[in-house]
Amino acid sequence: MPRTLRLRSQVVILAVAVAGAVFAYPYLRPGPRQQPIVAFADVPVRQARAFTLTPSQLATVSSEPVVKRQFFEEIATEGKIGVDEYQATPVFSPYPGRVIAIFARAGEQVKRGQPLFSVQANEMVQAQNDYLAALNVLNKSRSQLAFAQAAEKRQRDLFETRATTLRELQVAQNDLTSATNDNRTAEVGLEAVRNRLRILGLRDEDMAALQRGSAINPNTPINAPLDGTIIQRKIGPGQYVGTGGEPSYLIGDLSKVWLVAQLREADAAKAEIGEKLLFRVPAHPERTFEGRINYIGTSVDPATRRITVRAEIDNRQGLLKPEMYASVRIINERENLSHAVPRAAVILEGNKASVWVIKPDNSVENRPVRPGIVDGGTVEILDGLKEGERVISRGSLFIDRMSTQS
User: Any one Gene Ontology biological process term (predicted)?
Assistant: First the structure.
């Protein structure tokens, strides 16, 4: 190769090397030291540093003491208002028949014994017929008893005057005993039929009218078994009802309702009986309702992977209605106090956290901490600080940047 060509090649190689060095210099020159982000249990993000603030620097920052306070862990979920099943009663027709009339509607207040609806039922016709038959039997037994009493008195009077024999008196006494027993049996039978009619919904005044000669009425009222509010009505006029299947009415006491919440499987271990539960409903967004958990489900719903928790809620004002949607917060009240610092004092770098601690001599030290629950503008510190120490709450990022440049 000619000498001029070799010299030219060396110049080109040298120029390329110089250009590469200039391009790579910004990436290869020493810069701020960076550590890999690891778990808190490993080494800290940076070595703890301490330096003293000048009066001008001190004027730009604020500090607050580390205090102890109670933190509440919250579990957010959703739920709905339900009927207190211990205070609710489904109403079934005790016999099959066709609905003739509806007397009570959903949302109305009813008293025990108040008619809800009426059906035409063969059982009512048969029971009224049995009542009339029992009345007839009782009337006959009373007549026989009166005759036996008169016969026994006559024979006793004759026996005392020696006008009859002892045998005739004993026969009359036996007839009286038999008539008395028959009358008692008739009275018991009539009372049994009366009770049967009461169960079927017939009132005493209706039975008295039937006794006076009123016609048999096939319409049977179905009465409320307890005081309460009609929550559901599932029948209508003309509908045929049976003794099984769905209830015709659901009556409950809505002065207390259930808040039924669905808890995620991962949060199941955090909920306990007796814990406070706060919730809101869209109908009253300004109002926060409160209760205590009194039931936790024993199994996970295989479809939703949720566990049911329940609380009893005072509803004497009637603001909560069954099936209302609710946004729920379960409050885990910790008994122990924890260290707390302002949220602005905590510096986060990846999954690391630290604070700047200021000492009485105005020196500051960067200290790794382990944060816990964040409650508004306050952070729980589980490890790394002592009560009474002061941390930089305003200007901590300025101190942090200044420390990396020193």
Answer: copper ion export
| DSSP state at residue 213 | T
Residue 368 and residue 325 in one domain: no
Residue pLDDT, tens place only, 81-113: 999 999 889 999 888 889 999 999 998 999 998
- Domain count across the chain: 4
Whether 238 and 312 share a structural domain: no
The pTM score is 0.56
Question: Which has the closest alpha carbon to 84: 275, 276, 312?
Answer: 312
The answer to whether residue 124 is domain-embedded is yes
Cα-only R_g, the chain: 45
Residue 216 included in any domain? yes
The residue whose two tokens read 């550590």 is 35
- Residue 35 falls inside a structural domain: no
Q: Is 88 helix (H, G, I), strand (E, B) or coil?
A: strand
21-69 confidence digits (pLDDT tens): 433 343 334 333 333 333 333 334 444 466 777 787 778 888 899 999 8
Largest interatomic CA distance in the chain: 181
